[in-house]
Amino acid sequence: MSVKWNEYYQKVAKQPHRPNVERAANLLALNNKTAIDAGCGTGRDSNYLLNQGFTVHAFDAHEDAVETCLTRFEGNPCFYISQSCFSDFHYPQCSLFIASASLFFCPSEEFDNVWQKIDAALMSGGVFCGDLLGVKDSWVEAESHPNISAFTKSQVDALFEGYDIIHFHERDEDGTTAVGNTKHWHMFSITAVKR
């Protein structure tokens, strides 16, 4: 497992922040600029948010990711990171919650409880920006990704009942992973403002 993640981190280490994260940060009407970067990886989105004046609370389950970020943001008083999984992380109040290609790694039996924590942490007027896996994604049945969370569109709609959807994109196509492996992608990318 560790070798696979090391290869992934090396591939994405130099990539810029995701455009949807920039759009989400620009949507924020609150004065509070506190973000959670869930499954932060090498910190590509955290880096952008720090440069925009956010305080960032990041976490990742993988030691390599945490060590990379500790080195990358050493001495930055606005960056906090912990090695944690979704169910163990202590969610501070935030105005922006980022879960770029990470939230589906939360085990399905823990997801409802984790979602309640995320929703409770995100203040009214705050922005959620992240991805959820669809039920047709090839990882859903893959032995290499046991017990991940996947959703139908109606289940995704139900999760965001208390939100105004700003951007919604469903990807349902064959493609490749960051490390070049072929797979079928079924993913929902959502940017939404909490009412």
Provide tags for this entry.
195 residues, alpha/beta, Rossmann fold, 8-stranded mixed sheet, 6 helices, 8 strands, 30% helix, 33% strand, globular
Short description:
This protein is of the alpha/beta class. The protein is 30% helix and 33% strand.
Shape: globular
Number of helix segments?
6
Helix content: 25-40%
Largest sheet: 8 strands, mixed
Query: Regarding CATH, which class?
Result: Alpha Beta
Q: In the CATH hierarchy, what is the architecture at level 2?
A: 3-Layer(aba) Sandwich
Distance between the termini: 39 Å
The CATH superfamily is known as Vaccinia Virus protein VP39
Explain what you see.
This protein is of the alpha/beta class and 195 residues long. It has a single domain, classed as Rossmann fold, CATH 3.40.50. It has helices at 2-12, 19-27, 44-51, 63-72, 108-121, 153-159, and strands at 34-38, 55-60, 79-83, 94-99, 122-134, 150-151, 163-176, 182-194. Strands 1, 2, 3, 4, 5, 6, 7 and 8 form an eight-stranded mixed β-sheet that branches. The radius of gyration is 16 Å and the shape is globular.
Helix and strand topology:
Elements: H1 2-12, H2 19-27, E1 34-38, H3 44-51, E2 55-60, H4 63-72, E3 79-83, E4 94-99, H5 108-121, E5 122-134, E6 150-151, H6 153-159, E7 163-176, E8 182-194
Parallel strand pairs: 1-2, 1-4, 2-3, 4-5, 5-6
Antiparallel strand pairs: 5-8, 7-8
